[in-house]
Amino acid sequence: MQRKEYRDRLLHQVAQIVREKREEKGLSQTELAARSGLSQPMIGFIEQQQRNPTLDALLRVAEALNISVSEIVIEAEKRSRED
Q: Which residues contact 83 (CB under 8 A, 6 or more apart)?
């Protein structure tokens, strides 16, 4: 698998995991934005893969969801390899 293809798959999985975790917690994008200090459009962009989240943004989202960045990344990497 080429680097770009792997990167795209990984970003896709990060987006899915963020959405899944947000929904599991019963949060709207607006509520997650408020908890993370990010804007609601940014949360939407991350979930729709329109933006590549910075490490800081991913850390803020993870903290707001009470999970670790590594949990997101490890799960995303695992799923990317399974696709």
A: 9
